[in-house]
Amino acid sequence: MRVHVYEKAFLSVGGALLVVFLGVLSYTSLAMGIHLPGHAGQIDPATARSQPPFDQPGVRQTGPNTYEAVVLASAWQFVPSELRVPRGATVTFVATSTDVLHGFEVAGTRVNVMLIPGQITRLTYTFREPGEHLIVCHEYCGAGHHIMSGKVIVE
Ligand code: CUA
Fold first, then answer.
1. Averaged pLDDT score across all residues of the chain
2. 24 Cβ partners below 8 Å, 6+ apart?
């Protein structure tokens, strides 16, 4: 079988890119520790409100400059709707939904996850600049989807 020279060239480029992409993927996940926002456990959505840590939603300090923000999403609100953290705080969001699929996006940051009923989502972000960030639900979740919002205030 004779393979045309251009075909060989395209195959080589494709093969080389595949190796490069796998290399980048391995390096970022193994050496740099970059992962998709985790799946940090499972919870019964019907009783999530009364189970820790979701029985006490809100921001709490976990270290010198680290905080945990526990958020419950339901149609059509985030509880709490306002999260206050100091400038420079590294915040680990721990969130879930008690009913349907919701979105959780902190505008102007890379915090952008889906909240899936039955799953706990965990994601860490450092707020370096003071200011206000809108929290929006970006998954259509019913008639009140457009009013489902909150905010992060970095003081
Ligand atoms: Cu919640 Cu859209």
1. 92
2. none
Closest-CA residue, ligand 1 atom 1, reads: 102
Residue at token pair 């979740």? 141
Cα(140) to centroid(ligand 1), Å: 5
Tokens of 151: 């905010």
Q: What is the pLDDT of residues 3-52, one digit of tens each?
A: 899 999 999 999 999 999 999 999 988 887 777 665 678 899 888 888 88
Is the CB of 99 inside a 6 Å radius of any atom of ligand 1?
A: no
Task: Return the closest-CA partner of residue 153 out of 72, 94, 87, 104.
Answer: 87
Instruction: Kindly state the tokens that stand for 109.
Output: 């940051």
Measure 142 CA to ligand 1 centroid, in angstroms.
7
